[in-house]
């Protein structure tokens, strides 16, 4: 029963992330990117180029976005699984509908191209990150990037998308006959890549503490008992006096950081603490490894 409730909670969470991400993506595209001829990359960027160059009578960016994604969805179904497929299908249908809806009802603000590129990049990265956190994709190169991530596991997904989108940025400048469009598109894509990685990976940051102290036994016991965190003893040696020292290594949640520092200083005010950022800490007390995660 508990497992079933957990599955329902996760499903509702994914739907919420996908819905918000798809809405934000379409809103950002119609307000900042398309009016300035700034490519968002991916299939929507390709659709924007087609509409601008060919002026098809009955085809809109939203319709083209949905049409181009069909074969990529089939690929995603075979390689990644049903949950990702249906989540991505829901996201793309929603995005396509919102793209055409917002284009009809929203007034286009007059925004400087550089401002549009910067804000458009931030919102694009956040929107894609939300959809990815919902275990889905907006379609297009996002699916290709997700497939590539399974093979190149150490390469951040934001950088994978950026590499593929740069080509679309160049094509945008050629079609619009203005190299400024390419440059603004590149700015938006770089900012989007950083924002995307921040959303996807930034929520999983912890801290690694290195503690050099003479009272390592008492501090290790306190960390284990009060913070419920594991401690590893490392053997070290001071350079100046060549004295052997014990170094405590412990990974803690960000919210436990203040408590950790207070705990250590209460026991040994002379302790030396080094704190380092760490993300995707895997193991007991943290996340479990999942080969399908980003």
TrEMBL record:
Transmembrane feature ranges: 12-33, 45-72, 84-103, 115-136, 157-176
InterPro entries for the chain: DUF2179, N-reg_PII/ATP_PRibTrfase_C, UPF0750_membrane, YitT
Q: What is the lineage of its organism?
A: Bacteria, Bacillati, Bacillota, Clostridia, Eubacteriales
Keyword set includes Cell membrane: yes
Instruction: Report the principal subcellular site.
Output: membrane
The record's listing under Pfam families reads: DUF2179, YitT_membrane
Q: Recite the UniProt keywords alphabetically.
A: Cell membrane, Membrane, Transmembrane, Transmembrane helix
Q: Which organism is it from?
A: Faecousia intestinalis
The annotated topology with respect to the bilayer is: Multi-pass membrane protein
Q: Where is the DUF2179 domain?
A: 229-283
Q: What is this protein called?
A: YitT family protein
Q: Where does the record place it?
A: Cell membrane
Q: List the Gene3D superfamilies.
A: 3.30.70.120
Listed CDD domains: YitT_C
